[in-house]
Amino acid sequence: MPKRNDINTVMIIGAGPIIIGQACEFDYSGAQACKALKEEGYRVILVNSNPATIMTDPDMADATYIEPITPNIVAKIIEKEISLHPNDKMVLLPTMGGQTGLNTALALDEDGTLKKFKIELIGADRKAIEMAEDRKLFREAMDRLGIENPRATIANNIQEAMASIDEIGLPAIIRPAFTMGGTGGGIAYNREEFVHFCTTGLDASPVSQILIDESLLGWKEYEMEVVRDKADNAIIVCSIENIDPMGVHTGDSITVAPALTLTDKEYQMMRTHSINVLREIGVETGGSNVQWSVNPEDGRMVVIEMNPRVSRSSALASKATGFPIAKIAAKLAIGYTLDELDNDITGVTPASFEPSIDYIVTKIPRFAFEKFPGAEPVLGTAMKSVGEVMAIGRTIHESLQKALASLETGLSGFDDIKIKGAPEKPAIIQTISKQTPDRMILIAQAMRHGLSNEEIISATSFDPWFLDRIREIIDAEENIILNGVPQTTDQMRRIKMMGFSDARIAQLTGQNERKIRLTRNELGVVAVFKRIDTCAAEFEAQTPYMYSTYESDAMGDVECEAWPSDRKKVVILGGGPNRIGQGIEFDYCCCHACYALTEAGYETIMINCNPETVSTDYDTSDRLYFEPLTMESVMEILRVEQENGTLHGVIVQFGGQTPLKLANDLEAEGIPILGTSPDAIDLAEDRERFQELLQKLKLKQPYNGIAHNDEEAFVIASDVGYPLVIRPSYVLGGRAMEIIRSDEQLERYIKEAVVVSGDSPVLLDSYLVGAIEVDVDALSDGKTVHVAGIMQHIEEAGVHSGDSACSLPPFSLPQSQIDDMINQTKALALGLNVVGLMNIQFAIKGDEIFILEVNPRASRTVPFVAKAINSPIAAIAARVMAGEPLSNFDLKSPTPNHFAVKEAVMPFNRFPGVDALLGPEMRSTGEVMGLDKTFERAFWKSQLGASTPLPTSGTVFISVKEDDKDNAILEAANILLEQGFSILATGGTSVWLNNNGVHNTRVKKVYEGQPNIVDALKNSEIDLIFNTTQGSQSLKDSRAIRAAALSNKICYYTTAAASNAAAKAIKDTQNGQVEVNALQNY
């Protein structure tokens, strides 16, 4: 059936900010859907509040609304679009925006908006979405098919939950309905945990419904990625097996594709059942994911759940097979059938041709527990990972070891890891029995300590087949330790085919990595590249999407399918796995580099290992290598690419800290680095060299010192004075950065946070209390400097810039200070000889401007600035780095006549017991953007987008430190009184407000007895909090307030500036209608 001609416009709802459980895989699927629908001639409307993604670029859709994703706001957008295009027939595609997209679409259907404007849901209708998402309806559907579910019961309140304990038994698994990433759920081993998870689960579910499942702990877990069309053609794109047994959320599990331990009979049964599930649920246009569990004891197979939308696994399955699930799903939703669509990769087979693969793919999640002191690094049914890597190899050994080396956690393979209490067997068993992020590495270590497979299985429930493969790697390691670096071609190739990286061989033999590489090259053992072709080499791949292997066939022949072209090439190094501090913003820059340089006539070559992102889409760059960002992998690719054509250069400044770490080594190997030189990047990071440059340019930085050992740190601390900011050099995302207020804190930092040495000194800066922080992004071609964006932070200096809300243009700075910062930026860009992008962080204290840090590379603010000023600054920077002057481009003013406010989104709800206080270490996973004509309105939208909507009435609690008892808080208090709020305040603040004529009621602090402020919060008596603290005691006192605010979802501001902005925003929105506007109209 050809595409529908009765439709003109398709609206896509995006997933909003990146959060744990809903990350940039939806940015990838949404971007693919936009491209696919525009290609078919439809007008595409996109709603997404996330500025960091390529999806919200103005040329991705015809109308891009960077607005909060709430039913109310989306209804306004629909109304506006219909009034602008009254004759267009509009439909809504809800399956590309994760749970956010689905839930918003359902809410619009429920409140009558879709009916009112005659809008049809395509891709999945309401009945299908509800049947898959509503736990009760799904169970009934499975019963009709005769497919077994785990024993379970559904509860809508705590009484119903408690009544089910006898029937289900303990342990039990609690899963909330209509949520994602297992939010709120968990495994209850006893009654106390049962009550806890039922309460949090009912709270997390938008419909207050939980499923209480029998425990399948230790069972094997599988996923089937299925695509089905209106004509009932259905294909399995990919089967995925979790190496971790049931009990760990699939997003936190190490997974492999294809499934490796099913018998053919089991696989065929699972395949047939998965397709039947889609038929029964009624998903007839697009991709879905069905999760299964198999009991290893007796083969009993049960269905866990089904997602009627493009999911996290869809991105993985797409990258693993080369089959573009989101693109195909979007085209099926508008009427096509699978046999009418082509497979882009082969160019000769239809999309109904089921993919098959002749390699093994491994996905390993990346965690960030170190960012959350107090959070236990234990995995369960609620997802905790912040990113993932994918690796491709010809054997499981190669695939696993490549994935470990891709993680960027310091691993080069199955590295040795210390087990507390080893070699005592009980200590080892206790360690591996915990579901921790490094469990697979610990299992390998347990094998080194002599544990048998049976002992490991009884502690972990890992499948024996996987344990045998890990043991083969450990045996090969022993051989290397015994015999040293392999000296013959055959021996070296055998080791490399097992996936051993040069770095790992160097570790095992006590040599350095470069020496291993040279030995390997002398022996003629080099990587070859194979293409991802969706059909196990049955047809030739038209798209150069490649992975490396050291495999040779039985005759010892090695075939390389790289076939480099004779063109002028630019290699772009990606950012690797998403993590806090290095997120999707860097991938955005890499994509722009690909698009801009392809347009400028270069052949673009992308190297990355992140399956969730747009940069690893086969059509983003001219050539894609899915490889770890390690020196070995990059050098092997460059060796092959330099066999033909000309290497114009490598871009290392766009992927965050990951490629920067390789810059000096690549340059030493004679590889041309485009843009700012590695030496200039190093100068900006090297505190002593940077200080010399600032003195030469007569610019200021906070009073500081650099310590190379523990004693020196205390001497410098007494010189600089407390409070001070301390951090190691060379970090991204404020890693191990803290505000220190006393000698005791300094002692703890040195003991626990970092090892201070001559090679890794720590920097101690005077902390500018109450200073205003400003971010400036600039472009330079080495001669001319253009300031692209100036962002005033709403939180004061001391909160990491990635966690602080900020406004472009500045909302309260005098023009003289703005001009001064522009001049300082230009001087620094020329002083560092920047070619490309640069970001500077300033702090303004009174009339003085201090420079906090300079990054002569792409920073996380680039996409936000690009959208706020409507200028593709990353694309311009890429072309400047390739040699064009700035004068070739249309450069926009950094002060548009509207306001853009960025707000960070925090994952504290995933880490119970962690203090929600912001500081110099970055903790946010994503961001939203509020766009409007006034600062107040833009700020209001940013809060709504970040899921902390400002209240319109009720009670505000105010407790501020001495320094903040000034006009900003007084003005905020008076505004809220005018708006009908009542005020609660603690001791000193209450007296100060009364003295200034602000009526309030006094409430007790936590340590003053009960009833106190925390009781009031728990009793839902407070709707808004302004709480600023100073000194360690008041920080401790206010921790309980932060915890109560977090669990009761109360708006909370910890700085005077943000409190003032919130009050003004509440007043502004109460006095006028909120308007929506497409990005293209600003």
Could you list the spans in which at least 5 consecutive residues all have pLDDT below 50?
none
Number of helices: 37
Q: In percent, how much strand structure appears in the residues?
A: 15-25%
Order of strands across the main sheet? 14-13-10-11-12-15-16
Q: Mean of residue pLDDT? A: 91
Briefly, what is this?
With 1082 residues, the protein is of the alpha/beta class.
How does the SSE layout of this entry go?
Blueprint: E1 9-13, H1 25-39, E2 43-47, E3 63-65, H2 71-84, E4 90-93, H3 98-110, H4 113-116, E5 120-121, H5 126-133, H6 135-145, E6 152-155, H7 158-163, H8 165-168, E7 172-176, E8 186-188, H9 191-204, E9 210-214, E10 220-228, E11 234-242, E12 255-257, H10 264-281, E13 286-294, E14 301-307, H11 312-321, H12 325-333, E15 360-366, E16 387-393, H13 396-406, H14 425-432, H15 439-448, H16 453-460, H17 464-483, H18 489-497, H19 502-509, H20 513-522, E17 528-531, E18 545-549, E19 568-573, H21 584-599, E20 603-608, E21 623-626, H22 631-641, E22 646-651, H23 657-668, H24 678-685, H25 687-697, E23 704-707, H26 710-720, E24 724-728, E25 738-740, H27 743-752, E26 762-766, E27 772-781, E28 785-796, E29 806-808, H28 815-831, E30 835-845, E31 848-855, H29 862-869, H30 873-881, E32 899-905, E33 926-932, H31 935-945, E34 955-959, H32 967-978, E35 982-985, H33 987-995, E36 1001-1002, H34 1013-1018, E37 1024-1027, H35 1031-1037, H36 1039-1047, E38 1051-1053, H37 1056-1070
Parallel strand pairs: 1-2, 1-4, 2-3, 4-5, 18-21, 19-20, 19-22, 20-21, 34-35, 34-37, 35-36, 37-38
Antiparallel strand pairs: 6-9, 7-8, 7-9, 10-11, 10-13, 11-12, 12-15, 13-14, 15-16, 17-18, 23-26, 24-25, 24-26, 27-28, 27-30, 28-29, 29-32, 30-31, 32-33
Helix pairs in contact: 1-11, 1-12, 2-3, 5-6, 6-10, 14-15, 15-17, 19-20, 21-30, 31-37, 32-37
